[in-house]
């Protein structure tokens, strides 16, 4: 017995003390968009469960602005010890890097991918006062009124801004981009009638559509969403090549120790697959994923390249 203890102590002394017991204090998850938006909704759900699994709280800190790039720059600059990670999105790692000439980070080189937690479709909705009742009516109304209306979005150069710019290019329409710090304030103004149209990630728009404060016209993706089975996809309304998916994944700064990265990845993946947490995610219309660091790294590169070619092909520039 005594001998065993001595051996255990001797082994413990050989282990690198710095992260032998990771985590031994709370972890900060930087959410780069405001409270009440989709990144915040999924981030808080995952953080609560991952904290339980890790035995340490995962504290959400909203650091907003510039389409999520401010919070992501802070994540990239943090100490790579696993105690500060961030929730990357398609905007921060897919679209913005091609449109922000002074971006303070490289979406691949400056981060350690941990786990992509959730994917979500996007949805085009209008204030109920807006004349269009269907996507076809929307397209003809916008064509007949070039430059008259605005669309609200969660940040210039982010996925909701670009998704709309791309759709307008396909359909020959012209609208004004009205950018906010995130979906939550963009929705407030659309529901309030300040801006008539919004292209948003699904989870944040869903409650307003259900309560008839917004009228949904089309959803992205190959299938309708079970939360709103009456809303047709863009594809089934004739826009087969038009697809815009949102995602939210945990990343750390570059250079994180592999064991710390893997411990976080396993905890977050387990969190989003936990039946109760997954059910809550699915209620928002999002799809839990929880993949590995290698898979997420591959996705980040693929998304960066995909959006580069969309932007170049459509010659998209920020307004
Ligand atoms: N649309 C943003 C994105 O997918 C998220 C907006 C928000 O969370 O407020 O990157």
TrEMBL record:
CDD domains: PBP2_BugE_Glu (cd13577). Residues 1-20 form the signal peptide. Pfam families: TctC. Keywords: Signal. Belongs to the UPF0065 (bug) family. This is ABC transporter substrate-binding protein. It comes from Achromobacter dolens.
């Amino acid at each position: 017995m005594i001998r065993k203890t001595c051996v255990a102590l001797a082994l413990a002394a050989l282990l690198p003390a710095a992260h032998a017991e990771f985590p031994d204090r709370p972890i900060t998850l930087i959410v780069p968009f405001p409270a009440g938006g989709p990144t915040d909704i999924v981030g808080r759900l995952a953080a609560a469960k991952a904290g339980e699994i890790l035995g340490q709280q995962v504290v959400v800190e909203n650091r907003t602005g510039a389409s999520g790039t401010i919070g992501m720059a802070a994540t990239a600059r943090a100490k790579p010890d696993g105690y500060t990670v961030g929730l990357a999105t398609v905007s921060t790692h897919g679209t913005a890097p091609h449109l922000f000439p002074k971006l303070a980070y490289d979406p691949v080189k400056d981060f350690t991918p941990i786990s992509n937690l959730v994917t979500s479709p996007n949805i085009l909705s209008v204030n109920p006062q807006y004349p269009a009742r269907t996507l076809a009516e929307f397209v003809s109304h916008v064509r007949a009124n070039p430059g008259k209306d605005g669309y609200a979005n969660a940040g210039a150069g982010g996925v909701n801004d670009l998704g709309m710019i791309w759709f307008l290019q396909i359909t020959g329409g012209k609208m004004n981009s009205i950018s906010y710090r995130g979906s939550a304030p963009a929705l407030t103004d659309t529901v309030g009638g300040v801006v008539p149209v919004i292209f948003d990630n699904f989870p944040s728009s869903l409650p307003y559509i259900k309560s008839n404060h917004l009228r949904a016209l089309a959803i992205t993706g190959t299938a309708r969403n079970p939360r709103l089975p009456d809303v047709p996809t863009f594809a089934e309304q004739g826009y087969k090549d038009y697809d815009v998916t949102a995602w939210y994944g945990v990343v750390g700064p570059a250079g994180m120790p592999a064991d710390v990265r893997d411990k976080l990845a396993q905890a977050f993946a387990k969190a989003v697959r936990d039946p109760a947490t997954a059910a809550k995610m699915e209620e928002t219309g999002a799809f839990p994923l929880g993949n590995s660091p290698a898979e997420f790294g591959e996705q980040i590169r693929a998304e960066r390249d995909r959006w580069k070619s969309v932007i170049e092909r459509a010659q998209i520039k920020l307004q």
